[in-house]
Every structure is written in C-alpha cells, then in structure tokens.
Prior knowledge:
The protein is an all-beta fold. It has strands at about 5-10, 10-15, 45-55, 65, 70-75, 80-85, 90-95, 100-105, 110-115, 120-125, 130-135, 145, 150-155, 160-165, 170-175, 180, 190, 195-200, 205-210, 215-220, 235-240, 245-250, 255-260, 265-270, 275-280, 285, 295, 305, 320, 325-330, 335-340, 345-350, 360, 365-370, 375-380.
Amino acid sequence: xxxxxxxxxxxxxxxxxxxxxxxxxxxxxxxxxxxxxxxxxxxxxxxxxxxxxxxxxxxxxxxxxxxxxxxxxxxxxxxxxxxxxxxxxxxxxxxxxxxxxxxxxxxxxxxxxxxxxxxxxxxxxxxxxxxxxxxxxxxxxxxxxxxxxxxxxxxxxxxxxxxxxxxxxxxxxxxxxxxxxxxxxxxxxxxxxxxxxxxxxxxxxxxxxxxxxxxxxxxxxxxxxxxxxxxxxxxxxxxxxxxxxxxxxxxxxxxxxxxxxxxxxxxxxxxxxxxxxxxxxxxxxxxxxxxxxxxxxxxxxxxxxxxxxxxxxxxxxxxxxxxxxxxxxxxxxxxxxxxxxxxxxxxxxxxxxxxxxxxxxxxxxxxxxxxxxxxxxxxxx
Length: 381
C-alpha cells in the first residue's frame, strides 16, 4: 500500500514533494534514488502462464481474490471479472455501474467491492447484482466475505458486517482514528469464525464474524516521536493467519506474530513497512519502507537474512513459494529472492506500471496485479 496521502480526521491532506522520508523521489540526491537493476543471470525457471487486463486502478489499489479455483479481479472504472485461476480464461465480466475504490472480496458465491462515495456493491457467483449498501465513509480496503457476511472497513475506522445474501446490516464496530493516518488500504482476513482487521495507530483487532464481538485488540506498533507525523504507525497490508499465528507489520513500528486466538505476542521486531508480510512454515518476510527485504524466523523472530539490493524500489507485499520469495516494484518488475539466504535469483517484467496490490498463490501460479490493470500469472518451475 503506497503512501499517497494522510487522512486528517475525515479529510484528506495529499502529500507532495518536500518530505523525503515519505517521497523517495523528492530530490536528485543519489541517496534517495531507487537502486538500479543490474544484469542478473536467473537461476530459477519462471514463465508467464497467462495474462488478463481488467482496467487501471487509478489512485486506488485492487488486489485479486482467490476463491476455490476462481480468481476475482476489478478495476477503477467498475469492471469486475471472474477468471479460471489456472488458465486465466474469463468466466464472466460485468460493469458495476459505478467507479470503484476497493476490491475484490469473495467466497465464490458472493462478490463484494467498494464503490464511489462509500457504496458497497455485491454480486452473486455468476456476476448478477445482489444488493447495494452504504458505508459511513469512503472505502479503500477490500471487503472480505465469510461466515455468511460481507465485512467492510471505511476510512473513519468503522467496521460493518452486512448479510451476504441480502445486504441487511448485521453489526457495526467503531474504533477511534488517530489525528493522522496513512491513506492506504489496511487489510482484513477471515479465518474460521473470526475476522482480523488491520487498524490505524498500529493495532490489530480480532472480531467474531457472527456478532462483531472483540476477541482481542493488540498493539503492534507503538506511536513514537515528537510530531504527529512521526507518530503515524498504522498496520500495513493484510494480516496473515498461518496455523496458530497471525502475523502483521506496521509503518514506523514493528513486525511480529501473535497467537491467533488470544492475541498474545509470540515475538516482535522493530521495523517500518507500508506493505504487508508473507508467512510460510519457517519464515516471516517483510519489505521495509527503504526497500530492504528481511526474513525472520516464524518461531522466535530471529533474523535469518536481509537483502538491500532493491533499495527505494517501492516494493510490494512479498509472496513465498517453493524456494523463492517474489515481490513486485514500482516499474512492474517482479523480483525473485532465495528463500534461504535472500540472494537475487530471478526477475521478470510485466507492463511497466507499479505493483502495489497483494499477490496470491493459485495452485502453481503466482498472481500479481499492476496499477495499469494487468493481471499476470507466473508459473515457477
């Protein structure tokens, strides 16, 4: 999720030049320029399995959603499509009838997106409109669907659950919002009977899907600094639930894993990231806001390796698959690092536009969506 601005109360203050800590291209200083790409002899076999164009994201971020063997994608102009995840074959494509600001969420039966001015639009599994509801403010985070509800988080930090079939409001939870927050799309994830919600102010909130009852709320990143800007510590990207852990990272805060039932911290380490984490059996991977990629032991948080060869390339959320860790950058390149030691082992290009969305794994395919709307499935062999 990119830092394109900050929300001030209910308003928006756009960040422009002049703040190099948030805008690495504010000056011509070599220290603030993205690391150049050096010639790389690939040691991993990667091929493009398929590509699909869904339309530009504009200022929003759209991430593909996997449900069973189907992939759901959307673009800012209202296009929503269901694809076969293995082949990329279009199963249907519809127009939402509104510009979109967030999406997609689906369980395969219900597809939900965020529309203009806080509209929530739901479709059935065949692309037919189901219902329309209204959130309390703009929606930047993709809705999530599970347990018979569609859960939506709006920028005023109100979390609302709607009946998946009818759109009737089931419950609402309101949390306070700090004076300044990143204008990003903090993620949510459904796991079992719970939904885990990334929060501004460095907090992770777990709620029951049935009634919105808080299971726990933990502080991941503690606000520090003399100014409000220095104290921004929002959760970045999407929480990841893996076995009994839920792992997250915050901006100007920490990365860590917590007990997914109680919220008790297993471990935390200081870092700063404006994207999410990847988790596998052994490691937690994070790309920090300076472009360094690090691996931590999932069990205890010990540092396994760090690669700083992609400095300031505005890296996406990582993805762990097989012996590689893959992540996109601001020029649409997808970089492959060794899972074991972090060495660069491969690189492929897409369409030249930034990759800001959360990638997904579908079978043997790694799927990335660019800001220009190209959905690319890569087969790693």
